[in-house]
Each structure stands twice: as structure tokens, then as C-alpha cells.
Design brief:
alpha+beta, Glutathione S-transferase Yfyf (Class Pi), Chain A, domain 2, 2 domains, 6 strands, globular, binds glutathione
Length: about 325
């Protein structure tokens, strides 16, 4: 006897409806968006500073909690490396748990196993997101700051008494206006822009984000034709902030976030610029290809439900000569 089955059109319609509804619910958890479907990143809530009366600069008092896949946390690791603060500020690495959707500490720390526990310890009843990076004060047992843009300014200036590269100023007074102008352009269009592409919940939001992203990359590529770094001859925090996004671009944003008009290594100047930054002293060890792939492909379920981690790309090309030395002479040594 012939088995009765549902008409195929109905199965497809039902499947699509259930799948799309689930996708929208999960996306709104993962990525809060505004009315037009644009991704909006929540504000960081701990905004104190090293140098305040409560948090004086000191060696081996403050600690960073980071995730190796995270571009925001990566900024803090790059500045710590460039300044030579490895023996001054300790690092605890957290890993994302795909089941629980939280950061789990690689080693128990301050009596906590997870990042949400650490946030609760800092502020009982805290209801915001528990994000990396975190700058932690071991003395008062609290979070000093959880905003990467501010943490890197502190790491650049407040620990020079102990830094092995204290002479390197990544945020010099004379360039601050220029650096801030770049930051204002690069954050929405590139740093957060790639997330706006990947987390877009409508075609219009995606189109807007990709247009802005690739227009800004083209603009920067043109500047880098004659300028070694964004603000001229010296590497600054603006470059660090751009670098951690560009390092991930061809690895995950190009494919997973659909930023696939062009790869960074296909740009005439941006490709070499990324190699230049990657090859600065002590920066390469902060770049963890496997963690980036694992953290993005393994944990953003609505974007990659099968959890398959792709085999590529190969990134050995980052070690190839960049040929940008002739643009200037001043590189941190
Ligand atoms: N504004 C923050 C953003 C940090 C951030 O969004 N970190 C992500 C990892 S890449 C995170 O920890 N997300 C966990 C969550 O949102 O629950 C910064 O730049 O420090």
C-alpha cells in the first residue's frame, strides 16, 4: 500500500517557516538589532581607569581576561606585546562554550570557572553581557574596565615604568586627533562593520553594511599607497584597532560573515600593511588562527548550524616580505 505523505510544497513552506522563525529568535539573542535590521553592539559597562585614585598603576596587580578568537580582546594582547608588558600584566585565556553560550576560563581564577561568575564577583546582580576583554584588579577584586578601546589607551600610557618598550608611544599627543578621526571611521564601517554584515537580519541592512565596509577599505588602501601606517610614519592605536579585524578578515569574515567582495590580501596595499603589522615584534604570537576559526565557526550557531570548521585558509603568506620599509624608517625595536 502506498504510504500517505504531505505534499512537498507544504513541507518546504512549513520547514522554511519554522527554520526562519528559529533563526530570527536566535539572531536577536546573538545580535541585538534596530528596526531596520542593523546590528547594534551593546555598550560596555565597566569604565574606570588605571591612574584613578582607586586603581593606581602597578606591576603585577592587574590582569587581562581574553579570548584568542575575539578581535576586541586581541587589541589588548597586541598592545601588551608591542609595549613589552608580558611580565607586568598577566593574561587568563577564556574559551567559548558552544553549549552554554558563555566564556569559560581556561584555568580557575579568583574562585571562578566562567566569565559570568567573574562579572558577578565584580558586581553582584550584574545583568549585562559578560564580554572579553576584561581588565581585572586583583587587589580590589573587581573589573576596572571592559572596553577594549579604553583598555589599550591605559596599557599604552600607564605602565611605562615597567614596560620593556616604554619609549614606544602608540597614542602620541600630536596624533591623537588624527587617531580618533580614524577610529570614528573604522569602528562603524570595519571593526563593527563586519559584524553588521554577518549579523544583518535583512538584505537592506546587509547591503548597507557591505557598501560601507568595502568603500572604507578602498579609502584606506589608497591612503596606504603613500603612508606606511594610518597616521603616517609611526604605528599607532588606530593601526592596532584596524589590524585585529583585518587579521580575521580572510579567515572568517570573508566567508562566515559574507564579506566576500574582496579578500584583504587581494588589495594592493592593505595586504602588505597587514603583513607589516603582523611582523612587528611579538605580534605574531598573539594571532591564533585555529582559535579564530574554532571560535567563530564553532560558536555562531545561527550562522553555521552544522558547526563544520573549514580547512583553510593558509596564512603563511603573512610571513612574506611586505616591502613597506621604504615608506619610513621608524619601527619599534
Ligand atoms: N565593546 C567591547 C566588545 C567586546 C565583545 O563584544 N566581546 C565579545 C567576544 S568577540 C564577547 O565577549 N561576547 C560575549 C557576549 O556578548 O555575551 C570591547 O570592545 O571591549
Amino acid at each position: 500500500m502506498k504510504k500517505k505523505s504531505l505534499p512537498p510544497g507544504l513541507i518546504v513552506r512549513l520547514g522554511k517557516f519554522v527554520w526562519t522563525t528559529m533563526w530570527q529568535i536566535m539572531m536577536s539573542q546573538l545580535a541585538p538589532s534596530n528596526k531596520t535590521g542593523d546590528y547594534q553592539r551593546p555598550q560596555s559597562q565597566f569604565r574606570n581607569s588605571i591612574g584613578d585614585e582607586k586603581y593606581p598603576a602597578a606591576a603585577n596587580r592587574y590582569r587581562l581576561y581574553v579570548g584568542m578568537g575575539c578581535p576586541w580582546a586581541h587589541r589588548t594582547l597586541v598592545v601588551r606585546a608591542l609595549k613589552g608588558l608580558e611580565n607586568v600584566i598577566d593574561v587568563v585565556v577564556a574559551n567559548p562554550s558552544s553549549e552554554a553560550g558563555i566564556w569559560v576560563l581556561g584555568e580557575a581564577s579568583e574562585g571562578c570557572q566562567t566569565l559570568p561568575e567573574l562579572y558577578q564577583k565584580a558586581k553582584p546582580g550584574y545583568t549585562g553581557r559578560s564580554t572579553v576583554p576584561v581588565l581585572w584588579d586583583t587587589e580590589t577584586q573587581t573589573i576596572v574596565n571592559n572596553e577594549s578601546a579604553e583598555i589599550i589607551v591605559m596599557l599604552n600610557a600607564q605602565f611605562n615604568a615597567w614596560a620593556t618598550r616604554s619609549h614606544l608611544d602608540l597614542y602620541p599627543k600630536a596624533l591623537q586627533a588624527d587617531i580618533e578621526a580614524w577610529n570614528e571611521k573604522i569602528y562603524p564601517a570595519i571593526n563593527n562593520g563586519v559584524y553588521r554584515c554577518g549579523f544583518a537580519q535583512s538584505q537592506e541592512a546587509y547591503d548597507r553594511a557591505t557598501t560601507e565596509l568595502f568603500d572604507t577599505l578602498a579609502e584606506i588602501d589608497a591612503v596606504l599607497a603613500s603612508s606606511r601606517y594610518l597616521c603616517g610614519e609611526v604605528v599607532t592605536l588606530a593601526d592596532v584597532r584596524l589590524f585585529t579585524t583585518l587579521f580575521r578578515f580572510d579567515i572568517v569574515y570573508y566567508s562566515l560573515f559574507k564579506c566576500n567582495r574582496r579578500r584583504i590580501q587581494d588589495y594592493q596595499y592593505l595586504g602588505a600593511y597587514v603583513r607589516d603589522l603582523y611582523q612587528l615584534p611579538d605580534v605574531a604570537p598573539t594571532c591564533d588562527l585555529e582559535a579564530v576559526k574554532r571560535d567563530y565557526y564553532g560558536n555562531l550557531f545561527p550562522l553555521n548550524p552544522g558547526g563544520i570548521i573549514p580547512c583553510g585558509p593558509e596564512i603563511e603568506t603573512l610571513n612574506l616580505p611586505h616591502g613597506r620599509e621604504n615608506l619610513t624608517a621608524s619601527v619599534p625595536s
